[in-house]
Amino acid sequence: MWHEFKTRRFFKNREKQKIITAIEQAEKLTSGEIRVHVESKVGKDVIGRAQEVFENLGMTNTALHDGVLIYLAIKDRKFAIIGDSGIDQAVPSGFWDDTKEKMQALFKKGKFADGVCLGIELTGKHLAQYFPYQSGDVNELSNEISMGK
Question: Residue 81 belongs to a domain with what CATH number?
Answer without folding.
Answer: 3.10.310.50
